[in-house]
Amino acid sequence: RNLQALVLDSNRVGALAMGQLSGLPTLHTLHLSNNCLTQIRGLDGLPLEELSIDHNQIAYLETLGMLPRLQRLCCLHNRLTSLDGLQRWPPSDSTTPTAGPVSGFLPKEN
After folding, report:
1. 74 has which bridge partners?
2. Is the pTM of this model over 0.85?
3. CA torsion sign, 54 to 59 to 62 to 66?
4. Is 13 in contact with 36 (CB distance < 8 Å)?
5. Across the strands, what pairs with 51?
6. Residue 68 in contact with residue 44, Cβ under 8 Å?
7. Is there a contact between 61 and 81 (Cβ–Cβ < 8 Å)?
8. Each residue of 10-56: pLDDT tens digit?
9. Could you give the angle at the alpha carbon of 70 between the alpha carbons of 59 and 103, nearest 5°?
10. CA–CA separation, 35 vs 55, rounded Å?
């Protein structure tokens, strides 16, 4: 219950079920890089400050608004086609500053 960081990199994780991590009320760092994720789900309400989802198959960042404390997002090497999820991040009712870096959501221009 006092787990603050969870690293699940390179474990062939295909999905997170809704509520699967809800028993971790102090989780502030979650690394899910190098897995098989296609969506960001099951993270609603977690006090995450850092989320690493590099090297997955994620196309949309639609649920970032459910992570009001998120300060650092790493999402390099995915299949992102839209930045719509970033428009709602941080949530308008957030009182926590979230000016941290967001990396890897657009291909590098030449």
Report:
1. 52, 103
2. no
3. negative
4. yes
5. 30, 73
6. no
7. no
8. 999 999 888 889 889 999 999 999 999 999 888 988 999 999 999 99
9. 50
10. 7
